[in-house]
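queue> pop job 88
queue> type: inverse folding (structure -> sequence)
queue> payload:
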């Protein structure tokens, strides 16, 4: 089965940048829609970015223009590059992969934006 492991989270100052990684246990990018979600304490999980098998992308309003989703097929790894980070970006960020029948989630990586 597919396993997803996030990494790259941590503490960053406002205005800084961070790149998150999601390593998949198998080659899935041609068959699954990949996405990044985030969830802050007391709030619902929010869609941040999507990358489909045809390489098309979609960005949620919260980080549109400040985030870029990409992937390295050879390494079975997906990335989320985040720039100009704000305190409101503080959340646990989750990697997601799904098709019409299966959905997989990573355990999440904490991102904290603070001075």
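queue> result:
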């Amino acid at each position: 089965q597919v396993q997803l492991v996030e990494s790259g989270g941590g503490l960053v100052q406002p205005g800084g940048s961070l790149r998150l990684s999601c390593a998949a246990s198998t080659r899935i990018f041609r068959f699954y829609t990949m996405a990044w979600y985030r969830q802050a304490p007391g709030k619902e999980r929010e869609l941040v970015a999507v990358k489909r098998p045809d390489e098309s992308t979609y960005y949620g309003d919260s980080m549109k223009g400040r985030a870029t989703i990409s992937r390295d097929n050879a390494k079975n790894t997906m990335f989320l590059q985040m720039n100009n980070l704000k305190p409101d970006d503080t959340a646990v960020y989750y990697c997601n992969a799904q098709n019409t029948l299966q959905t997989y989630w990573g355990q999440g990586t904490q991102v904290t934006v603070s001075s």
